[in-house]
Design goal:
Layout: H1 21-24, H2 37-41, H3 48-51, E1 64-66, E2 88-90, E3 94-95, H4 101-108, E4 114-120, H5 125-139, H6 146-152, E5 156-159, E6 168-177, E7 180-190, H7 193-201, E8 204-211, E9 214-221
Antiparallel strand pairs: 1-7, 2-4, 3-4, 4-6, 5-9, 6-7, 8-9
Amino acid sequence: MVAINSVGATALTILKAANAQTAAAPEASPVSVVPHVNALSSRLAPGVSDALLKIDALINGKDVLVNAKTAAANAGKSAGGVIAREGFVASPMMKLSELPKDQAEYVKRFGADAAVRIEGVELSDADFERTVLQFGMESWKDLPGFNDALANGTLKIQRASDVPEIGYESFQYDLYSGGNYFGGVGWSGINNKKLYFEIQAQGIRQAFGSIRGQEFYVTWPDASLAKPS
């Protein structure tokens, strides 16, 4: 297992599918590293693409419909029951009145009258670090400072819940109408943008997001982000 050491202040970015140019600019929105669902589906177990959060702009509050499917395409297997996915935990099907008000209002916009909360199974610290590190080695190898941090032990991997001061939250629901599954939606955000940019200005690159429901927070030194004090 790779040694995960602190690099000073804690921080974040997101899993990335395209390029990292956005996060490289200190004043840019911390939208950095988000995996394309289709790109991962060939490497992961069936159903993973349904449950991956495709996070597009945390800071700007943009939301993304994840792998929406028609009820007809899922006829038979989705009617009247909750879809089971390996590696995920599904809540009982809930009426919108049972959800927090803001979340209920959001999923209602997609035509849902009921929803199922999807979360990742609990992983040990070692398995969590291994999962995030494997993705990072594939996706972040071209980001400034990542390979050096991996080699010298200054890469830091944490659960997002261990960094409450940033306030990263993600949500994922399967959507139902008339008892039939028709798609899924996921969204996320951080509550402390000011702190995010303060950390970035110290020359710390930040990565955060969700892999199969595992919310992560990763940092490493990147001098190109530092701003004079």
